[in-house]
Amino acid sequence: MTVMVDIRSVHKSFGSLEVLKGIDLAVRTGEVTVILGPSGSGKSTLLRTVNHLEKVDRGAISVDGTLIGYRRSGDKLYELPEREVLRQRTRIGFVFQNFHLFPHLTVLDNVIEAPVSALGRPRREAVESARRLLARVGLADKADSHPRQLSGGQQQRVAIARALALEPRLLLFDEPTSALDPELVGEVLDVIKDLAHQGTTMIVVTHEIGFAREVADTVVFMDDGRIVEQGPPADVLDRPRHERTRAFLSKVL
Amino acid sequence: MSSDTLAKASAVPDTPEHAESLRIVPHRRPGQWAAAVAVLALLALALTSVLRNEAFQWDVVADYFTSGAVLRGLWLTLWLTAVVMVLGFALGTLLAAARLSSNPVLRSVSWGYVWLFRSIPVLVQLLLWFNIGALYPQILGVRTVDLLGPVTVAIIGLTLHEAAYAAEVVRGGILSVDRGQIEAAQALGLSRWRRWRRIVLPQAMRSIVPPAGNMLVGTLKGTSIVSVIAVQDLLYSVQLVYHRTYQVIPLLMVATVWYTVVTSVLSAGQYYVEKHYARGFGSTR
Q1: Is the ipTM of this complex over 0.95?
Q2: B87 in a domain, yes or no?
């Protein structure tokens, strides 16, 4: 199986605070990787480096065989101009904790914005595929609503449709259910599970242990800027080898 | 003690039997009535004094209200306001963008501009520009006084002043947009221009429109200051008439009523513009 995401010795600091202390991680095509860990462990920052929303201080990340955010020449990495970074991002879908839908645009306009303006798709074509995507997340009838008229769960499902509209090779989820009322978590997880079963490659940062157990091919446990352990959910969640993993799981389970 | 007796014991003694048939009488507020009557009486007094005081000469006001000279002055006031607003906000938007850029030189220059032009009274500025010929008698081989007539000086002076305030209004509007909106647009691969045009600006407009409407009304009235450099705006036009006829008060009333009428129309327009940019946000605050 080919590797979709290859993260090599990534370091990142905010001022004097080192949040990523050398991360190595490989995500295979078609697999679901779930990253768990206490808040402040660096898991969201790691996810954000994968589509270059955060620049790395050291190390390199490639997605689908392409170096992200840099161009290598000899033993130097040259930062790419923004235009090229933006093009790379159209291959990577990102779903935020707080949805970040565009509140002044209708649901349909939210979904077609990137295909039309970043990929240059004809509007008619983009609208057709947006309607299919909205139907897929169960919101076909909300196309003309504004985001604030929807529940949190519905907004996050729109955000997922918006990310899918670029037909990305990889989907990144940053705590997609953490901002939701408990009764709305299920509907969002169901959509993500559905995508997983169809073989979408994804990395999901979450606190939902049940979701990790059910969907993940690999569970990664992070603490203090490092990967403590990783493996199939049955190993990491049920037979953790490290004390810190055990301590974390005993608190969240 | 059974739960039944407990419920009875804790109930208010005279809890009525048929609560749904009782009428609710609101609390009376005699003070409110008294205040309203007093204010209305004062208003009536003021109004009768204005209408009955012959010195207002309302017939003269009516004669001059739509006279050619006054309408020409009104027209100049209107287009001068429009030009100053458009140029002021164009320059102000550039200044705001410079202030928010990552380039420290642009940031400092923008800050310095706003500091300088907010510090100089607009009247002082107009007089300085009007006398700029003393500093630079010639500009590109042309005599400065020929190049910068009173109207050009008025446009330059008012625009530079306006831009300093517009820059702060636009900057505030941009800062009011959630940082996550820009990040989401970046994650979707939207270009810098598209992010600005399609995502940031429409949302910033919600915060920009109310103070911009305020500035528009302020600028409309503020243009009357150009009468000091003999630009024939609404105020200067009525002044020209009363210097000839000595009907000072009625002609000032002509200007007053016109300024009020235009301000009312602009305020009504602002309401609709605010409604337009509130789409998707529930209410207009």
Answers
A1: no
A2: yes
Q: DSSP string covering chain A, please? A: --EEEEEEEEEEEETTEEEEEEEEEEEETT-EEEEE--TTSSHHHHHHHHTTSS--SEEEEEETTEESSEEEETTEEEEPPHHHHHHHHTTEEEE-TT----TTS-HHHHHHHHHHHTS---HHHHHHHHHHHHHHTT-GGGTTS-GGGS-HHHHHHHHHHHHHTT--SEEEEESTTTTS-HHHHHHHHHHHHHHHHTT--EEEE-S-HHHHHHH-SEEEEEETTEEEEEE-HHHHHHS--SHHHHHHHHHH-
* B24, part of any domain: no
Alpha-carbon dihedral of residues B231, B235, B237, B239, nearest 10 degrees?
-110
Sign of the dihedral through C-alpha B208, B213, B214, B218: positive
Of the candidates B181, B187, B281, the beta carbon closest to that of A89 is on B187
Residue B154 is encoded by which pair of tokens? Answer: 């008025």
CB pairs A-B closer than 8 Å = 73
Residue B271: domain span: 65-277
Q: Does residue B279 sit at the A interface (CB-CB below 8 Å)?
A: yes
pLDDT in tens, A118-164: 999 999 999 999 999 999 999 999 999 999 999 999 999 999 999 99
Is B17 a member of any domain? no
How many Å apart are CA A84 and CA B157, to the nearest integer? 43
How far apart are the C-alpha atoms of A112 and A131, rounded to whole Å?
A: 10
Residue B191 is given by DSSP the state: -
The tokens describing A112, both together, are 């077609």
- Is B197 touching A (CB cutoff 8 A)? no
A10 token code pair = 């990534």
The Cα angle at residue A118 between residues A112 and A123, in degrees rounded to 5 = 40
Does B10 map to a domain? no
Taking the Cβ of residue B183 and every Cβ of chain A, the question of whether any pair is shorter than 8 Å is answered with yes
DSSP β-bridge partners for residue A95: A173
Q: What is the per-residue pLDDT across A65-120, written as a single tens digit (0 to 9) for each?
A: 999 999 999 999 999 999 999 999 999 999 999 999 999 999 999 999 999 999 99
**pTM (two decimals):** 0.82
- The domain that holds B89 is classified in CATH as 1.10.3720.10
| Tally of domains within chain B | 1
